[in-house]
Amino acid sequence: MNRAPYEDAEFDKEIYQIFRDFFNLAEKKRRWSLEHDIPWDKCSKNLNPAIADLVESFCAVELFLPDYLSSMLPGLRSSRGAAWFMCNWGYEESKHSLALGDWLLKSGMRTDEQFDDVQRMCVQHEWKPPMDSPLGMACYTTAQELATAISYRRLAAHFTPQDDPCLHRLLELITIDERAHFGFYRKMVALHLRYDRRGTLEQLRRVLNN
């Protein structure tokens, strides 16, 4: 099993600086309010139902957040930068889940009962990490965060801001967050490459080939 050299003080110091840069930029430019920064009064009830299906699927993925954190944090707890990033990441992803769920309800695309069924279905199954090490998960999450940002952007391209100003703004904010998450992990993987190029390339190969 490949493990990140978190016991190396210089390595951990660099990860912490990557996190602080990420956090400081988020505080300065990227934080948004679920209550005040999304025009909830402009939800449309006339979008293609297929768009609501996709929003529900994205929301369902976000509902596994407790599994993501409980699975990944133990392997990172010795690294202040990596662990505190995960805590910050969890906060932002929880906001995404709340926003997507609120849109489904406020737009009338889902009833309370239907949305409750989705939540119950998700908690019946536990998410398991696809990679067996913190390094492997860093490589996996780099690819996953980029793919997620692209997916949200492509969903927003299927309707105009005038069709649903609320959902369009919501997806815009989430996409910006996901791109920021990708940026953090890209820098983290670059750091791993400096310390263990062979091991990191092997983990990247496993992720990208599977």
- Structural class determined from secondary elements: mainly alpha
Number of DSSP strand runs: 0
Runs with pLDDT <50, length 5+?
none
Distance between the termini: 18 Å
Q: Give the helix tally.
A: 8
Q: What are the secondary-structure elements, in order, as H or E?
A: HHHHHHHH
Q: In what range is the share of β-strand residues? A: under 5%
Helicity, in percent? over 70%
Mean pLDDT reading? 93
Instruction: Give the oligomer, counting copies of the same chain as homo and different chains as hetero.
Output: single chain
Q: What is the domain tally? A: 1
Give the CA-based shape.
Answer: elongated
Radius of gyration equals: 18 Å
Largest sheet: none
In brief:
The protein has one domain (9-136, 151-177). The chain has eight helices and no strands.
Report on this structure.
This protein has helices spanning 9-30, 49-62, 65-72, 80-106, 112-123, 134-156, 165-195, 197-209. By secondary structure, it is an all-alpha fold. The chain has one domain. α6 (134-156) runs antiparallel to α7 and α6 (134-156) packs across α8. It starts with 8 loop residues before the first helix and ends with a helix. The mean pLDDT is 93.
Summarize this structure as a short list of keywords or feature phrases.
210 residues
What's the layout of helices and strands?
Elements: H1 9-30, H2 49-62, H3 65-72, H4 80-106, H5 112-123, H6 134-156, H7 165-195, H8 197-209
Helix pairs in contact: 1-4, 1-7, 2-4, 3-4, 4-7, 6-7, 6-8, 7-8
